[in-house]
Amino acid sequence: MLFSIDYDHGSEISLYLVPDTGGSVPSLRIVSDNVELMVLSSNEERPELVGAGRHSTGMCGFVLNEKTLPGITGMHSLDLIDVDTGISVYRRARPEFIRQKIFRLETHLLPLWRIDDALKDRFQYWYRGIDRRGYETSQQVFCIADLESAYISGRLFIKSVEYYLNTGFKSVAMFRDPYDELAERLIILKNVTEKTKELLGPRDAMTFEPVMDYLAAEVPELEEEPLRRMFKRGPQDVLAPLNNPLVRQLSCANPGEMPRKTALGESLLALSAFEIVSLRSDAAHFSEALGETLGLPGGAVPTMTEFGRVIELSKKLKAIPEVEAVLDYDMNIFEQTKHAFGSIA
Fold it and tell me: Model-level pTM greater than 0.85?
């Protein structure tokens, strides 16, 4: 999906929206003060987008004014939302919005969306789990014209957005003991439902399909012995998606790329550019630091607790020597970060 705002003059807004299909006519939900006013289909042709090969007919432009949207001039609150994806294409700026650009690197397979949801109404642009929206859209949201107030979260690969992050974004991240993260991933992938696949998104559903199939066929229960067999004899296409996920996010460009010999150094260098780095074991630190950075009162950013079932399975995984080879780079990053926090304390 591709979109761009030409202008908002108060009495008139002009923009275009190219859907993923590239030929269908897009529609926008027009929302003011959390009330849907109307659904508007494209009402302006954009021949230049046909010439650029972006749209087959060019019917993907929008002009909103007093004729198409009576009262637009005085609308303090105005959101334009793509009907097909639910993505906010434009939100009219308001004085109370935080004038910062924040990127929260999601490092958990089960995303920490409670944090994101708590900040939804504090930014002009807000995009949660942008990695689930496809490559083009995940790039697009970082380069919206005149972007001054934005909050974006996603389990992206840093190298794919590195250029945009250097345009004034403050990056923040919280990660956990790699064994805890692996435990949670196995729990999720073992208990596959349609809701699980929806939670994963198309990219991850495809990436983790071999793992889900193997767990269903070869691991009746998430107990030490079947897991030991899995990590000792499991095929490469099953173990590869579980390999050092944090370091891959910090040093690789895509899900299929494996860590290089320089991955540790690259990962530490990437983290050094972050405004906030925290560990899940001290989630309160992340909540407090992010709230302070945004100028919010205490408690505005929720604190994420750990799940007992995850801790229990994590202990079993730590008793399996073969698992260490799958998490060696991530454990190095985790231990160095934990040591750094200990030194500061």
Answer: yes
